[in-house]
Design brief:
Low-confidence stretches: none
Strand content: 25-35%
Mean pLDDT: 91
Shape: elongated
Distance between the termini: 63 Å
Number of strands: 6
Number of helices: 4
Radius of gyration: 19 Å
Order of helices and strands: HHEEHEEEEH
Strand order of the largest sheet: 1-2-6-5-4-3
Largest sheet: 6 strands, antiparallel
Structural class: alpha+beta
Length: 151
């Protein structure tokens, strides 16, 4: 009986160490701003309706039309809303630059999601996406909906 209990204890200890190692990796993995703070130039924007959050696999998009306000003003307002969001900080860019990328981490594991907001002549473009995994369980779309409502 002692050997079985010891083996179970070792397995349990190994699992705890593996989980803690994974948590440390997710929280401490280096962030390369240049990888995430990029112009949103892909062709999927043409399929994105105005003023509606579009969920994607592991991501979400939102285009706010200039009818809601000048794109630069929308970006300035969004910057205040984003920075007031728990566990969110500016990763790169500025309102003056016309493009800002934010990193928002999940509460328990600290999984990072990146949201880039870019002011263009015709509106404000937001693209939120995950870094690790394939699915985000809708958190990026929910965050964009919350930010849109706060604007």
């Amino acid at each position: 009986m002692k050997k079985g209990a010891r083996a179970m204890g070792l397995i349990f200890a190994f699992l705890i160490i593996a989980v803690l190692g994974l948590m440390a990796f997710v929280r401490l993995a280096p962030v390369h701003a240049a990888q995430w703070h990029v112009a949103q130039t892909d062709t999927d924007w043409a399929k994105t309706p105005w003023d509606a959050v579009v969920p994607e696999t592991g991501a979400a998009r939102l285009r706010l039309s200039a009818a809601r306000g000048a794109p630069g003003d929308l970006l300035a307002r969004l910057d205040r809303v984003a920075l007031a969001t728990p566990r969110t900080q500016r990763l790169a860019g500025s309102v003056a630059e016309g493009r800002v990328t934010y990193i928002t981490r999940s509460a328990l594991w600290g999984f990072p999601d990146y949201t880039t907001a870019e002011a263009r002549e015709d509106g404000l473009y937001l693209h939120a996406r995950l870094r690790f995994g394939r699915a985000d369980m809708g958190v990026n779309a929910k965050r964009l909906q919350d930010w849109q409502a706060a604007l």
